[in-house]
Amino acid sequence: MKQALWSGRFKDKMDDSTLDFTSSLDVDSRMAFYDVMGSLAHVNMLKACSILPADDVDSIIKGLKDILREIEDGTFELDFKLEDIHTNIEFSLTERIGPAGGKLHTGRSRNDQVAVDFRMYLRDKALAACTAIEGLITSLLKIAEENPDTIMPGFTHMQHAQPVTLAQHMLAYVFKFTRDTDRFLDAFQRMNKCPLGSAALAGTTYPIDRFMTAQALGFKEPTENSMDSVSDRDFVNELAFCAAQTQLHLSSLCEELVLWSSQEFAFIEMDDKYTTGSSIMPQKKNPDIAELVRGKTGSVVGSLMTMIVLTKGLPLTYNRDLQEDKRPVMDSMDTVIRCLQIMAKVIATTTFKKDRMLEVTSRGQINATDLADYLVTKDIPFREAHAIVGAAVRESIESGVNLEDMPLEKLKTFSDRIESDVYDFIPVSRCAERRESYGGTAPSSTDIQMSKAIEQLMLHEDVIRQETQLIEGCWKDLLE
Ligand code: ARG
């Protein structure tokens, strides 16, 4: 009969329901790979520091590698009588190699073990999220590149505001998602310190080398304080926020795609491959993916709330509450990555109906600001121009004639400063072209935005590649 790692001080056996209630195996088994890596780095260090004899360490390493092979081909048997993945691996090791297996845990505790495993797990997830964001950005950039002069209405309050280009609209999301990558990479750097060797909470009496294990696991350096190390979950909260913010951006994008594919907007048609039908209404083509992404935002935001509340008021150092940190953030990272990956495909295959967008833009006196700007060029103060155009807009609404279609005599009734050059000023395409201010919607400006976005994309890709190579290099070394 297997006993808990800590059974020595207990007279009575734990009740089955206690085991069932306290077990985290169903969740933390996802960290099995990292647990083995952490143990390999740890025993290598114990050997180098002459804390464990070489032959014991060699057999521990052999046993751990066998276990890893089974984990990777799916044959490693989890024993649900053992409360977590750390215990499962340690028990299995001892079963394979005998008492030497019991030496693995020298100078460490599950408190620092779980902290290091989770950092390694989330470090990879952060990089995977960045790669997924880069995929979506690439899809958005392509639409932007192809549509520097595709005119569409820009909205505020969901009302026609000013004409913009489709490029400008797509680039708005590009920069939002670029910040998301920035945030993930920033959080990555902060979490990239190694808590292993902090032991239960106070460090250890063995002459361990924490710099050595930190380096072997691809961390920048060891964490500075053992009590902070086993209690810190800032890195989890930060990633939960990064995931939530990314998902919020996705949900806005998806909301627009849902609206744009409605009959009322009809700005886009999504590809058949990424839409679904109705079981009763034969004509339906539903934007279910976009709706699901929007819907999944609830749980991703919920995970952030869970983490914030979970960590509120926790005293130092390790408290079992912390075991509840994994499921929410593992789930939210997986969700955001899947959403990003599928949305990259949805965007890449969506057809944008340019004629419809242009036609709709001409409605709603969307060029009213431009008529006011025109009057300003004729030396009328903007406030006064605003009032003059207000009257013209009222006339346009009543007569159903767009501002740019009104005859000059009509326009002159609002201001005698209006000349025939107004017709070069207020057509919707001209409105967009003339917004050349830095960051504006003119093609000359979206060109600059494109280069900036691509520059950032490449920088991010470099960081992702370097960090991935560094981590993979560590795994290779440890498994040599
Ligand atoms: N399974 C625990 C967790 O995920 C780690 C074990 C530490 N347990 C303990 N009683 N100190 O947080």
Give an overview of the whole structure:
The chain has 480 residues and is mostly helical. It folds into three domains: 7-106, Fumarase/aspartase (N-terminal domain) (Fumarase C, Chain B, domain 1, Orthogonal Bundle); 119-149 and 166-201 and 227-359 and 448-479, Fumarase/aspartase (Central domain) (Fumarase C, Chain A, domain 2), CATH 1.20.200.10; 368-426, Orthogonal Bundle (Ribonucleotide Reductase Protein R1, domain 1). The protein has helices at residues 16-22, 25-28, 32-48, 54-73, 85-97, 110-146, 166-191, 210-216, 226-231, 234-260, 288-311, 326-349, 354-361, 368-377, 382-399, 408-412, 422-425, 428-433, 443-479, and strands at 151-156, 159-165, 193-194, 221-222, 268-269, 351-352. The chain has a two-stranded antiparallel ribbon. A two-stranded parallel ribbon has the order 3-4. Strand 1 and strand 2 (159-165) form a beta hairpin. Helix 7 runs antiparallel to helix 10. The longest helix is centred in the first third of the chain and has 37 residues, at 110-146. The radius of gyration is 30 Å and the shape is elongated. 42% of the residues are buried. Arginine is lined by residues 24, 28, 84, 110-111, 114, 318, 320, 322-323.
Structure annotation, total helices? 19
> In the CATH classification, which architecture of the largest domain applies?
Up-down Bundle
What share of the residues lie within helices? 55-70%
Distance between the amino and carboxyl termini:
35 Å
Overall number of domains: 3
**Biggest sheet layout:** 2 strands, antiparallel
CATH topology of the largest domain: Fumarase C, Chain A, domain 2
Oligomer: single chain
Q: Kindly report the average pLDDT value.
A: 96
* Broad shape: elongated
What is bound: which ligands?
A: arginine
- β-strand percent reads under 5%
Q: In the CATH hierarchy, what is the class of the largest domain?
A: Mainly Alpha
Class from secondary-structure proportions: mainly alpha
Strand order of the largest sheet: 1-2
| Stretches with pLDDT under 50, minimum 5 residues | none
Q: From N to C, what is the helix and strand string?
A: HHHHHHEEHEHEHHEHHEHHHHHHH
Could you state the CATH homologous superfamily of the largest domain? Fumarase/aspartase (Central domain)
Query: How many β-strands, per DSSP?
Result: 6
